[in-house]
Structures are given as C-alpha cells and as structure tokens.
Input
Amino acid sequence: MIIILFGPPGAGKGTQAQLLEKNRGLVQLSTGDMLRAAVAAETHYGKKAKDKMDAGQLVSDDIVIGIIADRIKADDCKNGFILDGFPRNVAQAQALDVMLAEEGVKLDAVVQMEVDDAALVDRVSGRYTCAKCNEGYHDTNLKPAVEGVCDNCGSTEFKRRDDDNAETVAKRLDEYYAQTAPVLPYYAEQGILQQVDGMAAVNEVAAQIDAVLAA
Ligand code: AP5
Output
C-alpha cells in the first residue's frame, strides 16, 4: 500500500505515519526527517537545504525529488510506504507519478488531515522528540508516561527542531497555502483524495485513517 499523508505543519502527519508504520508494517518516508539528517551530517544536499528550512521555505524540487526517487527503490519499500511531507507542490506530485509508474506501482490514497490554523502553532511549538529513537511527544498533549523518560526506548535525552518556533511556523503555513494546498485538486481529479478530521484525538484520527484505507 502506498499512502500520502497530506496537511499543513503540525497537522499530525508524522504522528500518524509512525502509527501506520507500527500497525501495518509500512515504511515512513518523511522528506523533513531525511533533510534534517542531511543537515546534521553536513552533506552537500544538507548544506543547500539548511537556509531554506530555517526560513520556513521549501527546499528546491531537484533535491527532494532526487531523495525520494532513490529511497522508494530500497528493499524495505517493497511492502509499501507512507509519504509524509512529500509532495509539497504540483511539480513534485507530477514527478512522483512518473517515479511510481517506473516502479510499476500506484498510489492507493491521499489522506488530507484537516486542522484549524490556530491549533497548529501550539502543536508545533510544544513538540519534542526522543533524541535516540525519534518517538514524538508534546508538552501538554502527549507526554511520556514517566516524565523525562522515553516510553519507547527509555532514553532521557530529547530534542526540539530549529524551525519549531512561532515565527517560522507562520512562514511554513504561508508556504503550505501558497504551494502545497494547490496539490489537492490534482489528487481530487484522480479520485484518490480523502479527508480526516485532524482536530480529533490521535487515536480517533488513526481510526478515521483506517476507515479511509479500508473503503
Ligand atoms: P517537515 O518536517 O515535513 O515539517 P511539516 O510539514 O512542517 O510538518 P511537521 O513535521 O511540522 O508536522 P506534522 O504534520 O508531521 O505533525 P506531527 O505529527 O509532528 O518539513 C520541514 C521543512 O523541510 C519544510 O519547512 C521544508 O523546508 C523542508 N521540506 C520537507 N519536505 C519538503 C518537500 N517535499 N519539498 C520541499 N521542502 C521540504 O504533530 C505535531 C505536534 O502535534 C506533535 O507534538 C504531536 O504530538 C501533536 N499532535 C499530533 N496529532 C495530534 C492530535 N490529533 N491531537 C493533538 N495533538 C496532536
């Protein structure tokens, strides 16, 4: 199964992708995570991407399309994958169609996560992850069972993203409406676009996604 989780910054794409990965054995392909890894490793792509990411702007298409084109050929993607944060404009969506056709596979669903803009800044500015296993948490909505200890791996080290501040989130939201939301009609025309209520509780959103994928 090949799924796109689609929505603005903080919609819950990463949260739901991690659940789908655990529950369905699909691989989460987050372009944001891949770019952050490239920045941390100071690769050629990472150096080019850093300024754009810090400014809340999209990284150039040639970089992200190249990353995804390579990644979907890997063996662990053969049973299916979840695209989280890609595509982010119509050119990327068209490039994805070409890549999937070359691999002889097709998209099963594009799940649009609808969330009020006002909730997004709170969600993103309260977010943190385990520094060791990358499990996601939130200051008020999703705390570890034991404060300061990761539920998943027991690590006591956590990290926050450089672009998770109110000013950059506002810019990321502007980019979403200017460049990413216009992709929605592209998938609506293909008859594979479905909506879920991203304002619901995490488990409820997961149940809605399950229902969409079962339809
Ligand atoms: P990226 O890493 O993709 O960030 P994003 O799209 O802005 O999305 P986020 O990761 O911020 O949010 P999310 O929807 O995954 O929410 P999450 O589940 O974490 O991109 C970062 C940057 O990389 C971009 O700005 C760009 O520069 C670059 N980039 C990436 N892909 C690119 C591409 N294709 N082209 C060009 N550039 C690209 O949840 C957020 C918080 O809310 C968490 O704390 C979570 O616990 C909480 N939460 C989740 N669900 C719920 C719920 N239902 N109720 C309450 N709280 C919830």
